[in-house]
């Protein structure tokens, strides 16, 4: 059980700092392990001691409830926080995505803009995942991309990968390729795999094969299921591994 005497005076700034750090780590662990009981116990203690309105802790509480797919808890935390910073809004967007509430996630992003809250790379990568599921012909994805360019976030690896994915899902292969070419330095394995997946899904076999050679030159190897899918769809002996 959590006891007040274990943490000292909750009104002491130093104690607040230490306690916040401890519970950020524990809440992250609860979210990763889906430890509902401990997470709820921590939230109850934070409510009792007056820590629950802290923006940093709130973002991790929203993340915890989001991973546990308990939207009521996530919304309660969002509604009761004193200051809704970028992390809090982004955690809420991610929480909606986990519940497959993609339209809600996009609406939160728009509300965030109306409130004048600064967006970061995590915000963009989260909402772009929702855009890829909207079925609106890529409209909201292009809107978000315009925001990305405005703040100069297109060179971030998470954003780059999310852009490739959303354009690929919407069938805009050329736009996905442009996103892939934005920054060579920012490319992660996930970006390469997302681009390869896009080529395969839309029957661009020659481009997929060329990309495989580029990956090999870069010292990268695609996941075996993805490589086998290229072989199956493109049906070329040149794909046989050495």
Topology record:
Blueprint: H1 13-33, H2 36-49, H3 55-67, H4 71-80, H5 86-98, H6 102-114, H7 121-131, H8 139-151, H9 157-169, H10 173-181, H11 189-201, H12 205-217, H13 224-234
Helix pairs in contact: 1-2, 1-3, 3-4, 3-5, 4-5, 5-6, 5-7, 6-7, 7-8, 7-9, 9-10, 9-11, 10-11, 11-12, 11-13
Description:
By secondary structure, the chain is mostly helical. The chain has a domain at 1-83. The protein has helices at residues 13-33, 36-49, 55-67, 71-80, 86-98, 102-114, 121-131, 139-151, 157-169, 173-181, 189-201, 205-217, 224-234. Helix 11 packs parallel to helix 13 (224-234). The radius of gyration is 21 Å and the shape is elongated. It starts with 12 loop residues before the first helix and ends in an 8-residue tail after the last helix.
Q: Give the averaged pLDDT, no decimals.
A: 88
List segments where confidence is low: pLDDT < 50 over at least 5 consecutive residues: 1-9
H/E element order: HHHHHHHHHHHHH
Report helical residue fraction.
Answer: 55-70%
Percentage of β-strand residues? under 5%
- Count of individual helical segments: 13
Q: What structural class results from the helix and strand content?
A: mainly alpha
Distance between the termini: 58 Å
Major sheet, described briefly? Answer: none
Shape: elongated
Quickly describe the structure.
The chain is an all-alpha fold and 242 residues long. It has a domain at 1-83. The protein contains 13 helices and no strands.
Please tag this protein with its features.
mainly alpha, disordered N terminus, single chain, elongated, 69% helix, Pentatricopeptide repeat-containing protein
């Amino acid at each position: 059980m959590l006891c007040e005497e274990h943490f000292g005076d909750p009104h002491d700034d130093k104690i607040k700092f230490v306690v916040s750090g401890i519970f950020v780590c524990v809440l992250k662990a609860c979210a990763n392990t889906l430890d509902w009981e401990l997470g709820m116990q921590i939230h109850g203690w934070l409510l009792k001691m007056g820590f629950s309105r802290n923006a940093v802790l709130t973002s991790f509480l929203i993340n915890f409830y989001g991973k546990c797919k308990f939207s009521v808890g996530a919304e309660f935390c969002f509604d009761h926080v004193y200051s809704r910073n970028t992390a809090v809004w982004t955690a809420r967007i991610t929480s909606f995505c986990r519940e497959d509430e993609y339209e809600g996630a996009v609406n939160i992003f728009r509300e965030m803009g109306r409130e004048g809250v600064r967006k970061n790379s995590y915000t963009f990568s989260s909402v772009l995942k929702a855009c890829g599921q909207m079925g609106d012909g890529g409209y909201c994805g292009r809107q978000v991309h315009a925001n990305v360019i405005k703040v100069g976030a297109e060179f971030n690896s998470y954003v780059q990968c999310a852009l490739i994915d959303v354009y690929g899902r919407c069938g805009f292969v050329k736009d996905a390729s442009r996103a892939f070419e934005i920054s060579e330095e920012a490319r992660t394995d996930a970006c390469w795999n997302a681009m390869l997946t896009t080529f395969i899904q839309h029957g661009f076999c020659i481009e997929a094969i060329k990309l495989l050679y580029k990956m090999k030159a870069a010292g990268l190897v695609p996941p075996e299921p993805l490589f086998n899918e290229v072989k199956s769809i493109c049906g070329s002996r040149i794909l046989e591994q050495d």
